[in-house]
TrEMBL record:
<dbReference type="Pfam" id="PF13191">
    <property type="entry name" value="AAA_16"/>
</dbReference>
<feature type="domain" description="HTH luxR-type">
    <location>
        <begin position="787"/>
        <end position="852"/>
    </location>
</feature>
<dbReference type="Pfam" id="PF00196">
    <property type="entry name" value="GerE"/>
</dbReference>
<keyword id="KW-0067">ATP-binding</keyword>
<dbReference type="InterPro" id="IPR036388">
    <property type="entry name" value="WH-like_DNA-bd_sf"/>
</dbReference>
<dbReference type="InterPro" id="IPR000792">
    <property type="entry name" value="Tscrpt_reg_LuxR_C"/>
</dbReference>
<dbReference type="InterPro" id="IPR027417">
    <property type="entry name" value="P-loop_NTPase"/>
</dbReference>
<dbReference type="InterPro" id="IPR011990">
    <property type="entry name" value="TPR-like_helical_dom_sf"/>
</dbReference>
<keyword id="KW-0238">DNA-binding</keyword>
<dbReference type="GO" id="GO:0003677">
    <property type="term" value="F:DNA binding"/>
</dbReference>
<protein>
    <submittedName>
        <fullName>DNA-binding CsgD family transcriptional regulator/tetratricopeptide (TPR) repeat protein</fullName>
    </submittedName>
</protein>
<keyword id="KW-0547">Nucleotide-binding</keyword>
<dbReference type="InterPro" id="IPR041664">
    <property type="entry name" value="AAA_16"/>
</dbReference>
<dbReference type="InterPro" id="IPR016032">
    <property type="entry name" value="Sig_transdc_resp-reg_C-effctor"/>
</dbReference>
Amino acid sequence: MTLLERERELAELGDAVHAAIEGSGCVLLVHGEAGIGKSSLVGALRDRPPSGSRVLIGACDALSTPRTLGPLRDLTPYVGARLGDALRAGDREEVLTALHEELTSTPGTVLVVEDVHWSDEATLDVLRFLGRRIDELRTVLVLTYRDDELDRDHPLARLLGDLRVNVRHLPLRRLSAAAVSELVSDSSVDAERVYALTDGNPYFVSEIIASADAAQVPRTVVDAVTARLRRLDHTTQAHVEQLAVVPSVVGVSELAHLVPGGSGALAAAEEAGLITVRPEGVQFRHELTRRAIVDALPASRRIELNAQVLTMLLEVGGDPGRIVSHAVEAGDVDAIVHWAPRAARDATVSGARRQAVEHYRAALAHPERFGAAERTELLEDFAIELHMLGRGFDAVDAQMEVIRMRREQGEPAALGASLRWLSRFHWLAGDRSAAEAAAGEASTVAAGADDRGLLAIALSNEAQLAMLAHDIPRTIDLATRAISLAQDADEPGALSHALNNLGTAHMLQNNDDGIDELLEAADIAIASNHMYDAARAHVNLVWSLLEQYRLDLAERYLQPALELSERTEVVALWAYQRVEQARLHLARAQWDEAVAAAGHTGESLPQPHCVALMVIGLARIRRGDPAGEATLEEASRLAERLGELQRTGPAAAARAEAALLRGDLRAARSIARPAYDEVVRLQNGNLQAELASLLRRAGEVVEVPEGDFPFAVQARGDWKRAAELWRANGCPYHEASALAESPHESDLLAALAILDRIEALPLARRVRAILRERGARSIPRGPSSLTRGNPAGLTARQVEVLRLVAEGRTNAEIADRLVLSVRTVDTHVAAVLAKLGVATRAEATRLAPDVLEPAG
């Protein structure tokens, strides 16, 4: 079919390729609804590649459990030996290194990955790796996806949020009535009726035209596809149905097993426009066509056809993930129990944790087919993968069953190791008492097993729990013992783990020896491929620096820490790092950015979710949003359930601040004082200083720690020095808060200027009231509310950004238009999406007419 009304998109593809050849790579996001013509656009690029370029195309398949690195493995015949070998082996780090080398050595490469909404986690990880480096590669990375497949929690939505450099959007629109008329001009169907039925969706238009005759236009696309299939002879129909249960390209060798006569037997189906035959294999012209055929098949026929595909894959040596997928569809238990564990472990090696979970689940659906020891190992591997994905409650349930089986099997070392994992799972799920019980038993069992390495990790786990409870002496004692044992046993994993806890304990004492210890812990973990522990060391380092309000240093370590967690797909720690980003924005009074970053955590991870709620609540109360206090109350309830000072103390500080902002000094004191007493007992100097500062503002003077920590200085009444320290640390809200304690009108006016600039309305109102009480003249009125009348609460700048997004402009184009940096525009776009409650620009564009006021 003729490619109509795509001239602009084809031109932009061509421009991007020429720019890449000249040294400026980019990411092109081609998106729209199903059937909108994404594959047709890619086909035009493949058939007519721009001069000087090569085009590599891989596709994601609509498998229930996606192939690990599937679209990249499609490229194996067309790339160099090193990348081909890496893709076949599936080792994540080698794939990343080899792919970077391949693209660097071949400028002008166009790498297309179709239907990324069906991608596996390992592929998304590779795409994230390339996207972050696209400015240094002379490559165009083209990703196609369906807008309607995405929501906020979709893994692709997270990837799209992380692609920030040289990114262009190519949203595809439906055809106009004129284009539909041109397409039907050679047929006997009525153009207006076709347009009314299809609303200009190119695929729907093509199916209706191809299936209709002069007498009747099919009412649905399924009717149209079915009608075309039934016009074929019975043998060809059977071949097409066989191919339809394979949601990927059917290669030449596979085709020979599935269709007697190979591609030659499919001429009629090709002429009917159902399939496309190429030298590399056969596939359906559109996924919707394949899906319509499969959905029309009786269940018994689908099972029979999947069984034949399974037989073929076993004969040709197919990918384990594909084998499992078809074995599940065929109900072949023997194949499932044989291949699912292997597919799960392959997925784990490649970093495709979601796929690993699904393969383990498929295997464990048949527990009677495994011996006790193998079943226990499979279930524990399953629990660990759930934990890595941040599904803490599910991990606990699975690991409790592991512990039951370990006790029956009577192997102390294995039981001790499993108890250590259970302790970690319990803590992340928010059950500290259960975590401590499992940790204590793990150490007891490990000591009895006479395994120094196991005892080292068990003691380090207890040290970690002590550190999280701010029991610093116990942490240092246990961690030091664990380090000695780990060194004696030559156990780098345990050594890294223990150094991590020791370094964090030192940071909690404001001892910078902890920085070197945490970096050493990360280096040891990386060298021994304990990537979770490496990521945790970076989390603890950044978190500690944020506690000290050393924002620039925290930001320096945060970005590489995020990249490490993303590459290792440790979702639980990635969630912590998103919260760290949110805390960084909050400290800098970047309210929208803080809320947007905090919005990425969910209730399945109660620890980071608690902090995220505090960030969102504080950002709201400081701007005068009445919803802020309810959010802080929710955070406080969750903190009490988690039962650790690191959560209860900050929650109390946040609620006391809210009481101060509404002028309720008594409430502020009643909230802050019990938390202050607990902080003094546990000797958390920084949190003691913050609570002391709040209590001073509420009219109660308490003991303040020594030192130059800004809260401590402010709590001692030295507002001027505190303001200087806050300014040096880049914390404008806190600077203004300190200046607001000054007796001098000039300082109050300086505080007011800051508060107006950052839109901190409640504190600005209180400063204005103080100035009026003191008889000040010429008090600035302050800015009018930028969000008044806007149903989504967008600021004026965000309204401008949304209007340009709705016009289809890229972030770079918006930056040029508004004279901003691309990074600033990235942040504004993220904040707009968060306020609108959507995951994609396309969804924001659809909501824009209801949000935007008419342009003046």
